[in-house]
Design brief:
With 72 residues, the protein is mainly β. It contains no helices and four strands. The strands form two sheets. It has a two-stranded antiparallel sheet with strand order 1-2. Strands 3-4 form a two-stranded antiparallel ribbon.
Length: 72
């Protein structure tokens, strides 16, 4: 699980996607660790991530898993 040292101020962006359709959308990922055992930056590795599609909807709907390669 990651975060930012200081989250950027970004506007809320909405993307309309029809059911069953695919669409590329920008996603900002933080690599500051929230797990003390990992230290501040997450270790170099291949990490998996998912993002909520509509966090205010009241029921969880997530993206498909993606991969992030963190290098030294």
């Amino acid at each position: 699980m990651g975060s930012f040292a200081r989250p950027p101020a970004l506007p809320e962006l909405r993307f309309e996607i029809a059911p069953g359709a695919l669409r590329l959308v920008p996603l900002l990922l933080g690599t500051a660790s929230l797990v003390p055992q990992l230290g501040y930056p997450i270790p170099p590795a291949l990490w998996a991530f998912r993002a909520p599609l509509d966090p205010k909807a009241g029921r969880p709907r997530w993206t498909l898993a993606g991969e992030l390669s963190v290098t030294a």
